[in-house]
Design brief:
By secondary structure, the chain is of the alpha/beta class. It is built from 26 helices and seven strands. Strands 1, 2, 3, 4, 5, 6 and 7 form a seven-stranded mixed sheet that branches. Strand 5 and strand 6 form a beta hairpin. Helix 9 crosses helix 12, helix 16 packs antiparallel against helix 17 and helix 22 runs antiparallel to helix 23. The radius of gyration is 25 Å and the shape is globular.
């Protein structure tokens, strides 16, 4: 029986975000086999009905007569065969729980499910007592674990629509716009194709270091595999499988065929005195072409802290490159039959490539196209909300209320589908920020950090919210933590803008100008940064340069006015409003229209 193979060495994070990124181990697979997952035929079940069916199956797990009538069996579980019955469904659920929650961090969730459902005649109060939990905490754990299980099964079944045999008839799109079997069968060669965003992290090489550094280098490989597996949509081969290639000559194309992945990440760690150099390369496993490379040095300090910083940075950059590569692949190989995932990848690629008002609208069109094919696509929902909020929060919207409503609907639905997705909480926080609720937004960003402490964007927005709450002196530390975690982030220009704004509001205009120049240099197309720089230059007495920058800003955001900026104040905090008056003076001096 095939179940989602979430390896014990990989941390299945507390949240649906991790469930959307299945991890498989291809160690025991024949070379050409594509990874398998539970194949629940969900096409006839809406997500809410699917979740209800999983919940009912857990409740009825000891009642074969009730299980036999469960929609999961009635709709068919293809990897169990047509003759699958209650015992097979029970085994699938039990084994999936054991695998999905198989790491130490998730032991409590696994025990909650096992004691509640797999051991008969235990009341929920008894389970809570056995686990030394309050009843309320127990119920929250139960809901989280059950939702994660359902989401895992749902996403796995949707991602791997594998069909071992294809009819010889021409390609026929499904009702969702996808060509049947597309994710499993190549229409060019007829061979099984790897999942999108699938990769293996090969063991990093220890160059010139002593044997005592081996554990540190192996830790880089393992942690990087874990961090990449947590990235949205990524399929990462487990480290235990990748270890089979340690110390062997590398043929990336052969590795891709053997493991059924599209990409290979390889790298090395070189130590010399107090310096450690990290090299990483992303390779297309089909062509052997190098897609991306990175090299940087770090001073050798606390090894675990350095490991976390390095792997977080690499995982974020690799994820962006994977999205760009898959977007190009889809446009090249099947431009006329894009499915929901293709449209979503196109949207994020466009948004990462060029942050501007025009790019936000272009990316949103891709996300909306994805949602027309799959209304439950969490990444597309977050993309719609993010692009609306970028337009609103840079004071460029002509329909602020309408865009906020659209973003709120998308973000709320994403949270409903993936309640423990840290990115979803960040997106909802930006909606609350636009709704002039910085205190509630602050809580969302703190919650996101609780779910993923290395999520750089959450740290940056945490600093921005403190700025709106009259605590601009605390902004820099939070944003600098974001920059430390992701020093080449696509949003780096915005983070320098956050620090610059805080400095200007605190009267540190020279420091503010320094950061605003960095923001504009990184991305000259972001109108808000140009306006802030113009205001800061005017406050510093550099009126000619301020007027020049203001003219550039007005070309980027022609509807920006001081009246609009004042009317869309995010907070009513008196400290923030008093500091804002000082900055408004700079905008007037720079030549920004009054209204």
């Amino acid at each position: 029986m095939m179940i989602p193979a979430c390896q014990p060495g990989i941390n299945a994070q507390d949240g649906a975000a991790a469930l959307e990124r299945p991890i498989f181990d291809a160690q025991d697979m024949p070379p050409a086999a594509a990874p398998a997952a539970p194949m629940v035929a969900t096409s006839a079940l809406a997500y809410a009905d699917f979740v209800a069916a999983v919940k009912d199956a857990l409740r009825d797990i000891h009642s074969p007569d009730l299980l036999s009538r469960n929609p999961l069996l009635l709709r068919g579980i293809s990897n169990l065969g047509k003759s699958a019955g209650p015992q097979e469904l029970k085994a699938l659920l039990c084994e999936t729980v054991g695998t999905l929650f198989g790491n130490a961090r998730d032991e409590k969730l696994r025990r909650v499910l096992e004691l509640t459902y797999f051991q008969p005649a235990l009341k929920q109060e008894v389970v809570a007592h056995r686990l030394s939990l309050s009843f309320g905490t127990y119920r929250r754990h139960l809901g989280t674990a059950r939702d994660r299980l359902a989401r895992w099964l749902w996403e796995s079944s949707r991602v791997l629509q594998a069909q071992p045999e294809l009819p010889s008839t021409p390609e026929t799109p499904t009702k969702n716009g996808e060509v049947e079997g597309e994710t499993a069968i190549s229409h060019v060669t007829g061979e099984p194709t790897p999942p999108r965003l699938s990769l293996v992290v090969l063991p990093f090489m220890n160059i010139g270091g002593s044997a005592k550094d081996d554990h540190f280098v192996d830790g880089i490989t393992e942690t990087l595999t874990t961090d990449l597996a947590r990235c949205s949509g990524v399929w990462a081969i487990s480290r235990s499988t990748a270890l089979a290639y340690k110390g062997k000559p590398i043929d990336t194309r052969q590795i891709g065929r053997e493991l059924g992945v599209r990409y290979v990440l390889e790298g090395s760690v070189q130590t010399a005195g107090e310096r450690t150099r990290f090299n990483a390369q992303l390779v297309d496993a089909e062509s052997g072409a190098h897609l991306w490379a990175e090299r940087f040095d770090k001073r050798r300090t606390n090894l675990l802290d350095m490991q976390d910083e390095v792997t977080t940075r690499l995982a974020h950059e690799v994820h962006i490159e994977l999205i760009a590569a898959e977007s190009r692949r889809a446009a090249r190989e099947h431009p006329n039959r894009l499915d929901a995932v293709d449209h979503t990848l196109h949207g994020w690629a466009a948004w990462y490539r060029h942050r501007s008002l025009e790019a936000a609208r272009q990316a949103r069109r891709f996300f909306e196209a994805a949602l027309r094919l799959d209304e439950h696509n969490v990444d597309a929902l977050l993309g719609v909300a993010d692009t609306h909020m970028s337009e609103v929060n840079m004071y460029a919207s002509d329909d602020r209320a309408g865009q906020i409503r659209a973003a709120e609907a998308a973000a709320t639905k994403a949270l409903m589908l993936a309640p423990d997705n840290a990115d979803a909480h960040v997106t909802y926080g930006t909606v609350l920020y636009a709704m002039c609720a910085p205190e509630r937004a602050l809580r969302e960003f703190k919650l996101a950090i609780g779910l993923d402490g290395n999520l750089a964007i959450a740290h940056a927005y945490l600093g921005l919210m403190k700025f709106f709450l009259g605590r601009a002196g605390e902004t820099r530390a939070h944003v600098e933590e974001a920059i430390r975690l992701s020093p080449r982030d696509p949003l780096l220009f915005r983070w320098h803008c956050f620090i610059g704004l805080a400095d200007i509001y605190l009267g540190r205009v020279v420091h503010g100008i320094e950061n605003m120049r960095k923001s504009v240099e990184i991305n000259p197309n972001w109108g808000l940064s140009q306006f802030v720089l113009a205001g800061a230059l005017a406050l510093a007495g550099l009126l000619a340069e301020a007027a020049e920058v203001c003219a550039t800003a007005r070309r980027l955001v022609p509807n920006f006015t001081i009246a609009k900026y004042r009317a869309e104040a995010i907070s009513d905090n008196p400290v923030y409003l008093a500091q804002r008056e000082y900055f408004d003076k700079g905008l007037r001096l720079a030549g920004v229209p009054e209204g």
